[in-house]
Design a protein that fits this description.
Protein name: Related to 3-oxoacyl-[acyl-carrier-protein] reductase
CATH architecture of the largest domain: 3-Layer(aba) Sandwich
Oligomer: single chain
Number of strands: 7
Keywords: NADP, Oxidoreductase
Shape: globular
InterPro entries: NAD(P)-bd_dom_sf, Sc_DH/Rdtase_CS, SDR_fam
Number of helices: 11
CATH superfamily of the largest domain: NAD(P)-binding Rossmann-like Domain
Helix content: 40-55%
GO molecular function: oxidoreductase activity, acting on the CH-OH group of donors, NAD or NADP as acceptor; quinone binding
Radius of gyration: 18 Å
Pfam families: adh_short
Strand content: 5-15%
Order of helices and strands: EHEHEHEHEHHEHHHHHE
Structural class: alpha/beta
Length: 300
């Protein structure tokens, strides 16, 4: 059993309900994994460490899944966990999320937000000539304005002793110049810029960092045509930890490795890095973009 190092803390996770798998993760048998979202992997990791959770979802279609996950985590880890529908791409959604969490999670008790995980994001791959201004607005509303307004709404409830943690889920596309990601990569670069600014403005309240996943085995990855995944081969094949391990890695990933160049990350691997940044031991780390991509990007 994992140590409950986050006992008594409260985390807000946007995009926090997609995907299911057991935690602690069966490290020696990843071949059993099915596609899942980063948000649910983070939720499971933090819950296993005793952290109570507010799981945000945007679409009514995700309500049943989110409620089911919240109930499971409450029963398994003896925490409080609620699901809250709020559109992070709207002007009112982020503030509504915070106020609903305050009213429902611990009614009648002092409310504090110890951890914020800005994970919700949207993407639409397009070439420059096919770029639609509506796509630009849609992605920037959710990927940039949403995190900004969420942090703004949460400021009154952040700790006063530097113990708070904000982790922004960025993407390696912010730096690598992948084709068809002009808008999405731009939103993630903006999120990383805000990470650095917030680390200064909120220094007495919390640390603020980002993680930059590369390809991750989510529904988005598995639904992508193999030809599109093959376009990432120059990057994947030079990523130290992307080499497949027959007998250990998911069989479909092993089969695709020659075409794709290796394997994507598993969402639990990204969640582990996010969890590390939420720990007390990370207290001297702020304003950084932390590798969550197996070494696809190396920088000082």
């Amino acid at each position: 059993m994992l140590s409950r190092t986050l006992e008594g803390k409260i985390a807000v996770i946007t995009g926090g309900s997609r995907g299911t798998f057991p935690w602690p993760f069966p490290a020696m048998n990843p071949s059993l994994i099915s596609p899942k979202g980063i948000g649910s992997a983070i939720a499971r990791n933090l819950a296993s460490r005793g952290c109570s959770l507010v799981l945000n979802y945007s679409s009514p279609k995700s309500s049943e899944q989110c409620i089911s996950l919240a109930k499971e985590l409450e029963e398994k880890h003896a925490i409080r966990c609620i699901g809250v529908q709020a559109d992070m791409g709207s002007i009112s959604g982020p503030a509504d999320l915070i106020q609903t969490a305050k009213a429902q999670l611990l009614p009648g008790s002092p409310f504090r937000i110890d951890i914020i995980i800005n994970n919700a994001g949207v993407v639409n791959n397009t070439k420059i000539e096919d770029t639609d201004p509506e796509d630009f607005d849609w992605m920037y509303r959710t990927n940039v304005r949403g995190p900004l307004l969420l942090v703004k709404a949460a400021i009154p409830y952040l700790p006063q002793d530097r113990s708070g943690r904000i982790v922004n889920v960025s993407s390696i596309s912010s730096t690598e110049g992948f084709e068809e990601l002009s808008i999405y990569g731009g939103t993630k670069a903006a999120l990383e810029a805000m990470t650095r600014t917030w680390s200064r403005e909120l220094a007495e309240r919390c640390t603020v960092n980002a993680v930059n996943p590369g390809p991750v085995m989510t529904d988005m990855w598995t639904s992508m045509p193999l030809s599109h995944r093959a376009g990432l081969k120059p990057w994947v094949s030079h990523t130290p930890l992307a080499a497949v391990r027959p007998g250990l890695d998911n069989a479909d990933l092993v089969a695709d490795a020659d075409t794709v160049g290796g394997r994507p990350a598993y969402s639990h691997e990204v969640a582990g890095i996010v969890s590390m940044l939420c720990s007390e031991e990370s207290s001297l780390c702020t304003g950084q973009v932390i590798c969550a991509n197996g070494g696809m990007r190396m920088a000082i």
